[in-house]
UniProtKB/TrEMBL annotation, chains A, B:
InterPro entries: Alkaline_phosphatase_core_sf, Sulfatase, Sulfatase_CS, Sulfatase_N. PROSITE patterns: SULFATASE_1, SULFATASE_2. Signal peptide: none annotated. Its cofactor is Ca(2+). Pfam families: Sulfatase, Sulfatase_C. It comes from the Eukaryota. This is Sulfatase N-terminal domain-containing protein.
Amino acid sequence: MKFFRGLILGFVNASLNRKARPNIIYMLMDDLGWGDLGVNGNLHRETPNIDELARSGVVFTDFYSAAPLCSPSRASLLTGRLPIRNGFYTDNAKMRNGYTPQNIVSGIADDEILLSELLQKSGYRTGLVGKWHLGHREQYMPLKHGFDFWFGAPNCHFGPFDQDYPRLPARPGLGRGRAGYFSIPAFDDKHTPNIPVFENDKMIGRYYEEISIDRNNARSNFTNTLRVRALEFVQNSVDAQKPFFLFFTPDSSHAPVYSSPAFAGKSRRGKIGDAIMELDWAIGSIMESVKSLGIMEDTIIVFSSDNGAACVGPVEQCGSNGPLLCCKQTTFDGGMRVPGILSWPGTVEPNQINNDVTGLMDLFTTGLALAEIPIPSDRFIDGKNLINLVKTKHTKNSRKSSPSGTHFFYRGDTLGAVRRGDYKMHVYTWSGTKASSIWHFCRGQNVPNVTTEVQTDHSKAPVIYNIGQDPSEKLPLPTKSAEYKQQRPILEKIIAEHQKTLVLGTPQLNYCDDSVMHWAPPGCEKLGKCLPTPASNYAKCYWDH
Amino acid sequence: MKFFRGLILGFVNASLNRKARPNIIYMLMDDLGWGDLGVNGNLHRETPNIDELARSGVVFTDFYSAAPLCSPSRASLLTGRLPIRNGFYTDNAKMRNGYTPQNIVSGIADDEILLSELLQKSGYRTGLVGKWHLGHREQYMPLKHGFDFWFGAPNCHFGPFDQDYPRLPARPGLGRGRAGYFSIPAFDDKHTPNIPVFENDKMIGRYYEEISIDRNNARSNFTNTLRVRALEFVQNSVDAQKPFFLFFTPDSSHAPVYSSPAFAGKSRRGKIGDAIMELDWAIGSIMESVKSLGIMEDTIIVFSSDNGAACVGPVEQCGSNGPLLCCKQTTFDGGMRVPGILSWPGTVEPNQINNDVTGLMDLFTTGLALAEIPIPSDRFIDGKNLINLVKTKHTKNSRKSSPSGTHFFYRGDTLGAVRRGDYKMHVYTWSGTKASSIWHFCRGQNVPNVTTEVQTDHSKAPVIYNIGQDPSEKLPLPTKSAEYKQQRPILEKIIAEHQKTLVLGTPQLNYCDDSVMHWAPPGCEKLGKCLPTPASNYAKCYWDH
């Protein structure tokens, strides 16, 4: 039946398709923390549109990213699989956070199946507006992986690379990888090109050049540019009478944060607040467009973030993880618990709260279910269909007092923790740096034997939290308590089963090479923006933390 | 005009009064933290009724208690004055949190003017349902201080005192004061009576005796009892055709927390969550009653808490301060920033957020303004009228990007910090205990030079935060920054002016005496519950922290 429907998709009336299969808008913010939204208790309540989106549907309170940083998290959303399975990790060193800086050699593996690919094949019009971050060499780019349309950049808006930043010393035997924007020693313009912005498969300019970012004043109009492109994509999709998938991934809340002059100083929170207020406004604008085009009841909108807020450097560059422990880069809840909002007026009932253990990987499976596409059966899929957990006009799921679901907290190649229901067990911890460092990922927080400055193996005496009672991970259960003794074997068994059946993906984030940087991206000729490509210096990437 | 109106109040039609002057319901929770409400981002969202109250009016995000613990905070609400002015502090030792255990000798001074007294005089029917905590000797009790009706207890529900707790060793030269429920060494029944519950001026029983509390299982029906009494008071006031003031002060969220069997295990948060869910239900019941009696538009409801959540002992006994630093007992925001909700349907517009620096002392002035009573002019009043800060059908106050207002953070006799607008300056810090202690008031948190284990005078190099950007007080402004240099003289001037004009109240929390405990409260004869009163051992109270 499904197969037959697939065959005739091209022939049936497009508006019929739209009724049967909803449009899908996934909005994925960058380094926005759990506590950055009014609806999640941000002290300043500066996100009225996102809060309204939340009221119109479901807030998932226990929604996790699949990794404590950007590239692996995004790869997991689109594949429905943990980074350890889809290859978005490094084993150059233990428990290191790899991602895709512009000298990364690899990207999303061809044998991974992406949500965008399946939606595109099944008749959806697919668009990515914003950051990609799954690899930037030709074979890894969005249009090769299921997107009909792309406007945005392949990497973060780090830079400018043509100023007098200190030069990175060569590391003997290692490539010049980067592992966190603050520690990226930028080069002069002869050594590092600025990141290009693409429209489809051609660059249209570079950050800090044609795409203006005033880093000193945290100003750029780029969020508005992305907003306009998203609105155009929605409008064009409606005109084309096809169901659409919009993946909206602005990155202004990632340091160096920025906002348009119209939002300068609007927030009490400083620059990060201005950026978030503009994102909220842009999202409100997309919501308004969906409404005014009359497709609100045919469109599901999901809002989330790629990982917890970063908390290094000045507070003006940092989001908020609310009451959660630590930040981006860690396997504590502050690193991986992120906002989770789902709205589908007319189908999903409003004002719902869901406390199940859910997350970004579920968006793969949910998207396929919405589009009536079978889940791939030839590989392990971590995601589940979120619609099965919420109240809809068809189903009567109600809130449970005990949450269901399991989540594995990986940092690079290492499993740090597992959560099942209300219990989270840490087997390997690392805050990442010394508490005295300005790079400390648990700033102002200190839980003895948990926020460890060095990598610490707890497998012989795991740290267990009742996350329901202690969501801030402040007070581990006493090892002699009945609760600890009851939970430990349950959680250890879950890990053992996971590890027994785990098929490791080939690590994609191991090798760097300066020759693969954006010297001469497609389209550079037309703009006269091609730079000479240096010789290859292919080597293992160095990942700091 | 006002004077004349006062004179004729007794003669005019009561229902006319009600229209002109709203009923006032203040709901003050006990040790409920800023982060305990769904509307403030509690991870579990278990307070639908309070959240609904918030949506129907104003959320004050920067709402402070006048003290980091119970008795002084309550005295300040009712007097509109800081504890250092109204006498609810101790100078037995520096920066100590005194309160009113049952061996305290004093209470609210007769020359303080209470909101309840002024409302009663002006024709309001005044009722206290719940904990009093402003002194329990005859002259300090609620009916002597402006309340027509009282049902509740004068002290916390500590106990039971008839079990084999270790006996408190005598402290040479000091009375047997107590300074925190966990450190209260309870006595056997010959040494310490259980706390009585009063109806008006007569006891009707004692906690753990007639008023059942099963401490082991955290069970008691007392919240429901208070709810029923509150509903009766509202109904009786409507029947009496008089405007009313209900001060509703349940204490089940104060350790040892409790809830009715109907709420046992309902919350993911454990016992504290069960208690809060029951409080939310009780509050919903009062809201429903106000609605069904047809007085919703004639009734203003304010919801708050006496201080930040406590965070000592097991997490099941602890509320949440969300992203704020430290807990009850401290001058950090976690000790004193509390929920602040105001609802007055038909007059105050719904869905408002106010970020001004506000607090419990404002409820004195707001209450007087609502009742058209002049503010006392013979003394300094710290409170201001909250209605002037919000949008009403008459006024168009709108949200400001920079908050107004000033707050002084005292702990006992010592000024710890001051806040003006978005800046908070700490001049004296003390977390209260060693970080290694289970009594640490900043559990899991550690901000160097701020969460100090010993009392630390910062007056020579104050610690300044931009609370707008850094509400978690994690990253003090660098002393060399322009922002620091700009703010320091402003904040120092505010302190200097405050101290220059400060008239110290006579400290009421200095002396303890076991003979003043509840041996033979009024009404004990009728119940056969009088205990023999021991000889006086009047001495200075000992306050731990």
